[in-house]
């Protein structure tokens, strides 16, 4: 395959990655609006958003194909993956301590001071 053929394939893959990443960001935004409580909203915001960011950065790297830009995009992805986990954990803990979590929607509650009931955990 010629050089022009490889760049065309890379451009098509880049467009697909960027489109799929943008779609995942849209799914995350819809999930934030539609979920009933804070913990569900956090889950909807972090999971598809991080994967969407990874796909968009992959698409940009495939499109630009410059080693310095690719290195910077890898740094962006690594920092996004590290900070989204830590920030969602901290927001979840703070909201639990502030009493903003709906306890009726929790399956397992490991943070409350109430005694543990003898309920089965997980699937039967």
Structural key phrases:
elongated; 124 residues; 3 helices; mainly alpha; single chain; 73% helix
**Secondary-structure element string:** HHH
The domain tally reads 1
Relative strand content = under 5%
* Biggest beta-sheet profile: none
Distance between the termini: 54 Å
Radius of gyration: 20 Å
Coarse shape: elongated
Would you kindly provide a written description of the structure presented here, covering whatever features stand out?
It comes from Nocardioides cavernae. GO terms for molecular function: sodium:proton antiporter activity. InterPro entries: PhaG_MnhG_YufB. The chain contains three helices and no strands. With 124 residues, the chain is an all-alpha fold. The chain has one domain. The model has no long low-confidence stretch (mean pLDDT 86).
